[in-house]
Amino acid sequence: MRAAARGVEAVRLPDATFRWDWWPENLRKDPVDKGIRLVVLGTTLTLSNNLSDWLELALCLVREQRPRLTVSATIEVACWCDPDHNMHVVRSEERLVGTATALTEAFESAADAVVRWAGENRDPLVHRTAAGLPNPEPR
Ligand SMILES: [Zn+2]
After folding, report:
1. Are the CB atoms for 90 and 58 separated by under 8 Å?
2. Which of 16, 63, 65, 100 would disulfide-bridge 38, Cβ 3.0–4.6 Å?
3. 105 C-alpha to center of ligand 1: Å?
4. Sequence ranges of the domains in the chain
5. What's the CA-to-centroid distance between 48 and ligand 1, angstroms?
6. What's the average model confidence in pLDDT over 7-23?
7. Are the C-beta atoms of 64 and 77 separated by less than 8 Å?
8. Do β-strands 54-63 and 87-97 pair in parallel, antiparallel, or remain unpaired?
9. Band of pLDDT at residue 103, cut at 50, 70 and 90
10. Half-sphere exposure of 59 (CA within 13 A, CB side)
11. What residues pack around ion ligand 1 (CB closer than 5 A)?
């Protein structure tokens, strides 16, 4: 898992800060509300941001009913809908795991997805168009 995590860190933009956020207290909780995700570990890589439009990759572990966790990798873009939803997940890979072995495999797979996506197109317009979402008016 550490090697996979280092692989994710390596695809950040030059000069971009990087960190993993960690909420170990969420490991001891059970989700009670479907609308609230108990994130245990996560990071976000901003690969495009011109202040009005952006694209980010995220990898996180979310607490489900114990002992399960969801491992997810996502591509997220700015929303240009009316009304504004702030952001949209345009691609994702999620796995529900319940053992240490499955967690390791799912984390490595999610990290591979993030690394692979970082090598693909970083234009949020391309991803919104592919997802059937509205784009900003051309200037
Ligand atoms: Zn939207």
Report:
1. no
2. 63
3. 32
4. 2-130
5. 18
6. 93
7. no
8. unpaired
9. very high
10. 27
11. 79, 81, 85
Asked if 48 and 123 touch (Cβ cutoff 8 Å), the reply is: yes
The pLDDT score that the predictor gives to residue 34 is 81
Q: Is the confidence at residue 27, as pLDDT, over 80?
A: yes
User: How far is it, in rounded angstroms, from Cα 114 to Cα 44?
Assistant: 10
Token digits for 17? 């800060």
* 135 CA from centroid of ligand 1 (Å): 10
Rounded mean pLDDT of 96-117? 98
* Residue range 102-120: mean pLDDT, rounded: 98
* Distance from residue 128's CA to the centre of ligand 1 (Å): 10
Alpha helices in the chain (DSSP H): 2-10, 100-118, 124-130
Q: Average pLDDT, stretch 75-96?
A: 96
